[in-house]
Amino acid sequence: MTILQNPAAPVIVPAGALPRHLLSAGDLDRDAALRILDTATRLDQAIAGREVRKLPTLRGRTVVNLFYEDSTRTRISFELAAKRLSADVINFSAKGSSVSKGESLKDTALTLQAMGADAVVCRHSSSGAPERLSAWVDGHVINAGDGTHEHPTQALLDAYTLRRHLAPGGSLEGRRVVIVGDVLHSRVARSNVLLLSTLGVRVTLVAPPTLLPVGVDTWPADVSYDLDASLVGADAVMMLRVQRERMGGAFFPTEREYSRSYGLDSRRAALLARHGIVMHPGPMNRGMEITPQVADSAGSVIVEQVANGVTVRMAVLYLLLTGGRDE
């Protein structure tokens, strides 16, 4: 099932202001994105060195993690982010809940509304589900990944990681990032293209033609089929997971053929700029899209991305639920 996006005109917000809900990376202008990244930096500094890594900012607020799809990193990251801000956290999984008895998304939303949820973090297998949910609850809705649509907080943590390594002064303007792999099924790729282009990054998508979506030529990114040529001098490469669970047919001949043409090995990683970094949203298919040697190399920031995800999601929850009043 695909839930269509609301065709109504988007609400116009002042530059730098966050929308009521974070449903798409496209909801953020440059000032709003930088505000989140700067807030994440300040929160990281605020809890650094504390014996108890918690702040009282969201004490008394309730955050619900509404996950209709399996997840490890994202769910735990949001849970930890909310708890570090002293919020009460409710974890809702479709398995073992009334959803398995046929309860609809709307009825679940009304239940959460009755319980007074201040924020709902929603992951769903249907594109557009978080947007539909936002019409039924008074609290803030954060898209934690919907179908093959978007994953905005992943793009924010990727931008945060890029800025820490490539832009100590804060600006990613003019940097070049190569995104490689299963773009067709990747919500991470869509959100990163939107956000990074907003921040002035030149993005190049590299994939076999069968794993590029229709209309990709309208995206604010270059498209290439030649991985080696695209990597030369790039500031970062972001490998995407091949999502076999979303593939109903054969999109490439064999795993070995895919790895030979689009896998990242040590030879290809050496084509990056001297300061270049290797990224991956996880979980990785080691040996297929990326070799273990590269995944565990000094230039890899894959584990750091996980840690940065907690900090960035703290910033998103803080700004949405408080409006940044105590910034």
Automatic annotation (TrEMBL):
One of its GO terms (biological process) is amino acid metabolic process. One of its GO terms (cellular component) is cytosol. Residues 174-320 form the Aspartate/ornithine carbamoyltransferase Asp/Orn-binding domain. InterPro entries: Asp/Orn_carbamoyltranf_P-bd, Asp/Orn_carbamoylTrfase, Asp/Orn_carbamoylTrfase_sf, Asp_carbamoyltransf, Asp_carbamoyltransf_Asp/Orn-bd. Its EC number is 2.1.3.2. GO terms for molecular function: amino acid binding; aspartate carbamoyltransferase activity. Pfam families: OTCace, OTCace_N. Catalyzes the condensation of carbamoyl phosphate and aspartate to form carbamoyl aspartate and inorganic phosphate, the committed step in the de novo pyrimidine nucleotide biosynthesis pathway. Heterododecamer (2C3:3R2) of six catalytic PyrB chains organized as two trimers (C3), and six regulatory PyrI chains organized as three dimers (R2). This is Aspartate carbamoyltransferase.
